[in-house]
Amino acid sequence: MKKLRFSAILRLLTLSAFAVLFALPVAATAGKSLFFEGKFGLRQYWELFVTNFTYLNYFWNSVIYSAAITAVSIAISLPLGFLFSKVKFRFRDGIFFVFILVMMLPFQATLLPNYIQLRDFNMLNTPLALTVPMMFSPFAVFLLRQFMKTIPNDLIDYTLLETSSVLKTFRYAVFPQIKQAVVSLAILIFCESWNMVDQALIFSMDNGGIMPLSVILGEIPENVRPAGGAVYMFPIIMLFVMFRETLEESMEAYKP
Amino acid sequence: MKRVVTVLAAFFCGIIVFFTFFGEKLFYSTKPHVEIARPQRINDLIILPETAVFHDADGDYIFTITAEEGFSAQLLTATKVRLTRCVPDETGYFGVGYVSVAAEGYSGALTVVRANSEPRDGERVVEGE
Question: How far is B86 from chain A (nearest CA, A)?
């Protein structure tokens, strides 16, 4: 009994230490943003939004890119996930293997082909260069496929008795089962695109005006950097807190 | 918790939208608008328009400008420079409305020659009407 209690305390202490370690940079940034030239207040935010007024242009760039990438990525991944999980066709597993392979490749490995394609399509240094490559997410297809595999085939068969429309089948039999997974995936994709740096620096190196906030953050004046960081973090933290339950439930619901 | 975050999120969005539309306008409208020029030099004399000289109980002073490239716009900072000499222009080149000035360390830096309101020492100013 004593041993059990000791291990529980040890576990709690370890987890608390990690929680503090993870929360510390966020709390420190938020705390520092409330001081400007040694004085407590919101002056740093005023300086950020007024003296450095173009900061918000980059903020909106990030919002637009992340929202577009998330929406299109989900729209593309849903039918592909359904295709790979529920529709039987020749070479299905082979094609899916290629998908997984692409997912395993690091960003640097696909960088050059992406760059050449964007250059050939005259898309370099345009907002499309920062969004289109990220809209095709093998990870999203993989995750949705795994979730859709857990949907009983009988359910789809019953729905097919009612309607012959694939869209209706998808809407009434598949989508309600994976709604939470889609929300979770949307949050993950949004966070990933919100934090993009490498692709923005490389695909848009001659057009600084279209950069996302993640790239510009290091260039804002040092005296307002904590406020800039706090504003940058807020949407992600807000999303996490608002959809934390959905995220947890979708992870728990997934049984391979 | 969720309700608190929702309220905070709405507040955050409101602030972001407000400053997106009004941030730049506030930058240009909350600071003194000044006209800046380098002073004229005749021999060893530094000549400025009378409007460049401000007065208080301790005497006359001018504002020099330090310009630096900011993140969104050029940042101009006004620095108060106390004058050791301020007499009407005697060179005959400029005449009425001009004064000959001297100050410690002042040799021809960018100077505020006209302002819609008097800047404070170290205050940021905006160039233009």
Answer: 35
Choosing among 3.90.740.10, 3.40.50.740, 3.40.50.1100, 1.10.3720.10, the CATH entry for A52-253 is: 1.10.3720.10
Which chain B positions have a beta carbon within 8 Å of A50's beta carbon? 19, 23, 26-27, 30
From chain B, the residues in CB contact with A219 under 8 A are 71
Please tell me the predicted confidence (pLDDT) of residue A68.
97
Is B71 part of the contact surface with chain A (CB cutoff 8 Å)? Answer: yes
Q: Residues A203-221: pLDDT tens digits?
A: 998 998 999 999 999 899 9
Contact A174, A157 (CB under 8 A): no
Q: Is the Cα dihedral A230, A232, A234, A237 positive or negative? A: negative
**Average confidence score pLDDT of chain A:** 90
Is residue A219 a contact partner of residue A197, using CB atoms and an 8 Å limit?
no
pTM: 0.87
A55 and B27 within 8 Å at the Cβ level: the answer is: no
* pLDDT tens by residue, A176-192: 989 889 999 999 999 99
Q: Which of B9, B30, B70 sits opposite A238 (nearest CB)?
A: B9
**Which pLDDT belongs to residue A166?**
83
pLDDT tens figures, A85-113? 988 889 999 999 988 888 888 888 888 99
Query: Inter-axis angle of helices A138-149 and A175-194, to 10 degrees?
Result: 160
For the domain with range B33-127, which CATH number is right: 1.10.1060, 3.40.50, 2.40.420, 3.30.70? 2.40.420
The answer to whether residues B46 and B121 touch, using CB atoms and an 8 Å cutoff, is no
